[in-house]
Amino acid sequence: MITEQDDESSASLDGSSYQLHDLDSIEFLPSLVEIDLTANRLNKLDSRISNLSHLKKLSLRQNLFDDAGVQPLSSWTSISALEELVLRDNQLKSIPDVSIFETLLVFDVSFNEISSMSGLSKASNTLKELYVSKNEVTKIEEIEHFSELQIRELGSNRLRVMENLQNLTKLQELWLGRNRIKSINLCGLKCIKKLSLQSNRLTSMKGLEEYTALEELYLSHNGIAKMEGLSRLANLRVLDVSSNKLAAIEDIEKLTCLEDLWFNDYQLASLDGIAEAVSGSREKLTTIYLEHNLCQIAI
User: Fold this and answer.
1) Residue 127 zone, left/alpha/beta (φ > 0; ψ -120 to 50; rest)
2) Torsion, CA 198, CA 204, CA 205, CA 210, rounded to 10
3) Torsion-angle region of residue 156: left (phi > 0), alpha (psi -120 to 50) or beta?
4) How would DSSP label each residue in the chain?
């Protein structure tokens, strides 16, 4: 049953998971603040949504919208105060024009068929969260004006270079797993707290030394041969270096905040030296993952 909630502060409509082909059977309250139409069969926008002047959140996730299907959004001035727009898991081939939404905070176009970030330059500089994962993007571009951005997700694309990040001075999370990146370049982002570069083509950890705000670092499934540049990352809590080409756990003795260490899928034959390697984090360390190592037999 499609549900609507209405009170003085917020009105919402939950029309998710009904396999709807259209919205003809739905009544839209003028006071609606949030609409969730996730997991339907929609490919066209209902023009009645354009009149909902109080709307702040609109989710069209997991539908059948193509570029033409979402194009009307660019001219719906009555909903220009929208703060969250989710177009995840549709059939988009390009970034839609969202310039009309001057206070947009969250924009999600992940799991589409987008090959270029062209068009993002029109998006509001108020944006705090941007999700473009699982597309076909080859270059990081048109993001220089996002000075308020805090979360940036670009995993599962075709990126080869970390670039054009220098103006994202408030960025705290950067997710770039499953790309083709060969070297780390954070472009001076000193506020970064979470970094994921899993399943890329890294052969070295160089480039991390000065990013001392890092709390979570995910580098598994690369070709890294040596643990280095980690000793200055005093705030690091989670370190995942599984499935690389490492022969020893090293350069983490001074990491007093470390809680989780992932070091599985190696040929580590002995536990000798591990106690010394994690000596600085004994008070905080809760878990060490050593699965699929030769030493696993002796644990």
Assistant:
1) beta
2) -130
3) left
4) --EEEE-SS-EEEE-TTS--S--TT----TT--EEE--SS---S--GGGGG-TT--EEE--SS---HHHHGGGGG-GGGTT--EEE--SS--SS----TT-TT--EEE--SS-----TTGGGS-TT--EEE--SS------S-TT-TT--EEE--SS------S-TT-TT--EEE--SS---S---TT-TT--EEE--SS-----TT-TT-TT--EEE--SS------S-TT-TT--EEE--SSS--S--S-TT-TT--EEE--SS-----TTHHHHTGGGTTT--EEE-TTSGGGGG-
Listed in sequence order, the residues at least 6 apart from 8 whose beta carbon sits closer than 8 Å to its beta carbon are: none
Which amino acid is located at 121 in the chain? S
Specify the range with the lowest mean pLDDT, choosing from 74-83, 108-117, 170-179, 288-297. 288-297
Q: How many angstroms separate the CA atoms of 276 and 72, rounded?
A: 61
pTM of the predicted structure, to 2 decimals = 0.94
Spatial contact of 149 and 125, defined as CB atoms under 8 Å apart = no
Spatial distance between the Cα atoms of 82 and 104, rounded to a whole number of angstroms: 6
pLDDT tens sequence across 108-130 = 999 999 999 999 999 999 999 99
Nearest Cα to Cα of residue 270 among 291, 299, 250: 299
pLDDT digits (tens, 9 = 90+) for 32-57: 999 999 999 999 999 999 999 999 99
Contacts of 23 (CB under 8 A, 6+ apart): 15, 37, 42, 46, 48
What whole-number distance in Å separates Cα of residue 288 and Cα of residue 271? 12
How far, in Å, are 67, 118, 119, 172 from residue 259 at the CA level? 45, 40, 41, 19
Residue 26 contacts residue 42 (beta carbons within 8 Å):
no
The CA distances from residue 79 to 47, 73, 231, 271, in Å, are 11, 9, 49, 60
Instruction: Tell me the two tokens of residue 270.
Output: 């002995």
